[in-house]
Amino acid sequence: MDRFDLVKESFEKKEVPAEVPKGKTSDYFGELVFDRKMMCKYLDAESLQGLLDCIEGGHALDRKTADGVARGMKDWAMKHGVTHVTHWFQPLTEGTAEKHDSLIDYDGKGGVIETFDGKMLAQQEPDASSFPNGGIRATFEARGYTAWDPTSPVFILEDTLCIPTIFISYTGEALDYKTPLKRSIKAVSDAAVPICKLFDPSVSKVYSYLGWEQEYFLVDESLYSARADLMITGRTLFGHNSSKNQQLDDHYFGSIPPRVTAFMRDLEVAGHRLGIPLKTRHNEVAPNQFELAPIYGEVNLANDQNQIVMNLMNRIARKHGFVVLLHEKPFDGINGSGKHNNWSLGTDTGTPLLAPGKDAMGNLQFVTFFVNVLAAVQKHNALMKASIASATNAHRLGANEAPPAIVSAFLGRTMTDVLRKLLEVPSETPIDIAGKKGKSLGLVEIPEIFVDNTDRNRTSPFAFTGNRFEFRAVGSSANCSGAMTTLNAAVAEQLLDFKVAVDRELASGKKTNVAIMDALKPIIKSVIDVVCFDGNGYTEEWKAEAARRGLDVETNVPKMFCEFTKPSAVEMFTRTGVYTEKELQARNEVKWETYIKKVQIESRVMVRMALNHIIPAALEYKSRLLKEVALAKEVYGNLDNCATEMKFLSDINQFVEDISVKAESMREARKAANKIENVYERALAYHEIAESFPALRRPIDKLEEVVDNKLWPLPKYRELLFIN
Ligand code: ADP
Ligand code: MG
Questions:
Q1: Mutate-to-test residue for ligand 1 from 468, 474, 484, highest number of ligand atoms within 8 A of CB
Q2: At the top level of CATH, which class does the domain 593-720 belong to?
Q3: pLDDT tens across 224-248, in order?
Q4: For a pocket test of ligand 1, which of 303, 342, 453, 458 has the largest count of ligand atoms closer than 8 A to its C-beta?
Q5: How far is the centre of ligand 2, averaged over its atoms, from the C-alpha of 556 (Å)?
Q6: What is the pLDDT of residues 680-693, one digit of tens each?
Q7: Quick one: how far is CA 85 from the chain centroid?
Q8: Phi-psi category of 357—alpha, beta or left, where left has phi over 0 and alpha has psi -120 to 50?
Q9: What's the mean pLDDT in 335-355?
Q10: Distance between CA 544 and CA 326 in Å, rounded?
Q11: Domain covering 185-579, topology
Q12: With bands split at pLDDT 50, 70 and 90, how would you rate the model's confidence at 94?
């Protein structure tokens, strides 16, 4: 089949109807998770109590409870046709890891029976030596183990019972994303509770919440399979812009093609059955780009759910003849994909901490947390950026569509005014809800409802949107934990410092509200001057201004990772108990290694495709042109009628020459980089190689415009990008 057959085939594909269970969504919502309802139904009283103590009180799971829970879980799972079990974990690779074991065992009478006990539930030792670990296991202990995280409910994927676990080394170092995230959840709670108690003594826990918005592209699988770059790297390494792409803004929120709707519907049903509260689906800005978002939830669970959804997307897309691209920048010249992380804090008494309160003290509590979050982001702005940096996200950040590679915060008019006002008025001035006492000049007021009318600024990486902050710089393929762990830890540290400052004010005999406001004022002043920025983040002026303000403007990804081992970061992460210094060092090794491998793979694919796909097509066309020219010469005796052919020939010669020189020098650069012993230095060398991609791409994209359309071997952007 040639390219045209593939295009025709993709154009003619009909929608595959979605399989939607009968009844209401609420009838089947969560049927494949072992949630509280199932626990109550399937566990004996003692096991249930033991498990709830683990979940709520953070106690370790003892063997007896584990056995009891496993018994009930097995009964439940077998009703759903489960035959296998796996510990499901999140190593430092993309995606999740699982190793399935069948439930069968010999029954001692010559047959087999299904078994599942507390030991299998609680702990396993996957052969972990091939997961990235940054040298931790090589140096210290060869094995790692996975242990059930009872705060993440067990779920069923097809025939397999999946047990969400942490993954750690025998010496206790985290080898995954979940462990540090869980530590950061505890850290921010421990640091926030004493401050909440100043407002409400009954608070005993603070939750962190995440609502992710997953952007993605769909491409037809036939066309996808005709492009080695998409298959191997998840993005197109070449491709001339389509004449029409997103300039008409006709895709954003446009009507969704039926083939895509059917895919979305199947995805939603699968998510709902797994208790994932998928809520929003829509077209995004770029052609073939879509977004999906659930109702937010506790961050550990929400992140597990994001991982599950990313996995489901790929499986379900195939049924509909699509492949999902989670890459941050699959196509040049149109928007890339991010994953906005909507983040907030709330108490176990049900009070949101990043939304206005019911009275002046409630509002003061809101402002307290609001300002401290800004202070944390300000202090660790470089680290926040490092937390979302990757080889793939680098293509998106700083492009004129996604947040710039500078972490600032957008507050909107209302909150900017409130903060400025607070600096002017005496510290005892109550922060009122607007309108309660009529129009009152000189007082500090917050509009009662402003979630829906907060301003938007798409250029800001960290924006306040009424009851939460939206961290927009996270990449679409990322595990949210990287960003969420860093944010939680930074906020925890800031809250610890803030509590010390408030206690100092209280010790001098001030009333609570005055003490808090006096401790807040210098912080407010500082965040307004430094991290808060409501302007256009895309401009050159902002880059200069940000540098002047002392915000980090680094764009080199391997260099960004160095932030994690700088003294201020080590101090912050160790004080909050989120990472040890050894873990930070090990993780950086993994990040540099991953960066190197990604760029290396892309570079290899690029060179091979240039030499094996592109140049041959160009030479074929060249040979045809040469034949025509030779024929013309024979017929007319001169080349007077061959101006166009000669021009094309000269262009082709020039582009082909350019490609072959650049491909060769890229190969040489790789060879030289591979010889560098030190992983960081090697990553820097690979960064240079990544920077040279556009130079090799340019002549290839130019050739695409010259070579006979029929001879071009790769599906073009215009063919890939418009699902009908
Ligand atoms: P938009 O595109 O306008 O930002 P969406 O509806 O696409 O909004 O996504 C917003 C996300 O933020 C949803 O997942 C939503 O549940 C989540 N969210 C709303 N309120 C909060 C909150 N207080 N904390 C965390 N996430 C929240
Ligand atoms: Mg959003």
A1: 468
A2: mainly alpha
A3: 999 999 999 999 999 998 887 766 6
A4: 342
A5: 27
A6: 999 999 999 999 99
A7: 27
A8: beta
A9: 96
A10: 32
A11: Creatine Kinase; Chain A, domain 2 (3.30.590)
A12: confident
